[in-house]
Amino acid sequence: MRFSLGKLTLPLYAVLAFIYLLIPIVYTFVFSFNNSLKTNLIWRGFTFDKWTNVCQREGVCEAFGNSVFIGLISTIFATGLGTMIAIALVRYRFKFRSSVNLLLFLPMATPEVVLGAGLASQFFNLGVQKGIWTIIIAHIMFCLSFVVVTVKARVASLDPALEEAGRDLYANPTQVFWKITFPLLLPGIASAALLSFALSFDDFIITNFNAGSDMTFPRYVYTAAARGVPAEANVIGCAVFALAILIVLATQINGEVKRRRLAKVH
Amino acid sequence: MAFAAFGSSNAPASAKPTRSGKVVIALLAPGLAYLGAFFLTPLFALIMVSLEVPDPNGGYAEYVPAFEIGNYFYVISEYLPHILRSFGYALAATVLALVISYPLAYFIGVKARPWPLLQKLMLTLVIAPFFISFLLRTLAWKQIFSNESWIVSTLHDIGLLGPTQYVVGTPFMVIFGLTYNFIPFMTLPLYTSLERLDLRYLEAGSDLYASPSKVFRKVTLPLSMPGIISGTLLTFIPIAGDYINASGDFLGSSSTSMIGNVIESNYLQINDYPSASALSVLLMGVILVLVSVYVKKSGTEDLL
Predict the structure, then answer these.
(1) Which of B34, B36, B240, B263 lies in disulfide reach of B90, CB 3.0 to 4.6 Å?
(2) Which tens digit of pLDDT belongs to each residue from B142-186?
(3) Nearest CB to A111: which of B100, B144, B241?
(4) ipTM score here?
(5) Residue A201 sits in a domain of what CATH number?
């Protein structure tokens, strides 16, 4: 193989691009160890204090707890509803298919301000008091389509022969679903649920339009941004980041191990 | 990866059309009803509010249903700079994201094919910014380019910035932030397209004596067009409606406010619901036009 500068350009470029993508993450990590006072703008020395006493800063942990609660409830509903739609889209032919596709795509294509203002107007018209539950309603709505996309990819890659085999062995439709289809779909459902939790946890714009006085973690950061965000917020952000990356890496390595084991069998 | 599914046009499975329409309805109804109630109806509510007029007998921020088309003329004339700025910034950031993403997506999707584990690792790095809070990563850039930062003092020293010029608060900084925050939405669909690129077409091109740049223009680029189109759509739309980056507390200043900033402040701060709603409807209208162009080109199956 010929060795040339041209061959190195692309890998080098990729490395630079990854550095660019990671800079703010590294910055946030570094400043979570800053021995800062109220704001976290200037480096004042290294400390573990913010990690060990993260809840001492008023409001941070409460906002974090609300975000986790909202994320969990929204994820359960969005994943359930979305998985059903995904199965229907891949496994069945029906009329109005393109309208269904469009209806699912539109929430993903609508800017968040529009979704937020629209839902807020509806709650206002109906006289609904805004609070945690209006946030959850909003989150289920915008997570739903993302769940469908993710699970749909998994359903499409399922070999229908497996279900046929089940039917040939006299399994009834319920058994086929719970013994064959569902277990095979589980990885797709799991990644949809993770995505949905991540979207819900990080959402600010739609939440801000539909929250009353309840704080979520992004709202806490936004409110604090005017005066300076305390290092404790960096701690929460980094802990969530680390957890998410660990989960993603674990699933990828697990998938790779399974793939290799299968390759050996065949 | 979940996001990679955006660009993919997974062909309907080979499963034979099955009987029961009842099952389909049972599977679809709850989710679609939910979207009807909390997505479609709110859009309708938004249109209604955008036509309301102030209540003649009411107090501050009280409005009554009406059919005041004039609200739209008012917001267009009043907020034209914000509207133009939004689409200008969105265009600039989308082009930047495309230019930055394409070589990266090409490297991951084509060059790294022999190493699937490396591919996955790089894809994880691409979406890594999604896992740190949107607001925190935007604030991180603000600090990195703050007036006291070494980057800005270096720029002052070498004379690239005048003594009273700074980076934060400028359109440049806002476009930079928008590009960074939405770049994975561009890289992933590009990757999905390029990953499926059949390398034999490229070989065929060079066998027929096409130069590498000609192979790229005539083969690679057209074959990755679905990824370019969906990536462009997926970055342009959220950028046009974003108000975090342009906000004065983050990367912008009052001279960089976009449509989103106006909608936010009119709706949540000064409670001028009709004008905020009219702007939202306008924004949605532009997006719908873009989406319909896309649907005409590639059909609805490619949307999901």
Answers:
(1) B240
(2) 999 998 888 888 888 888 888 888 899 999 999 999 999 999 999
(3) B241
(4) 0.90
(5) 1.10.3720.10
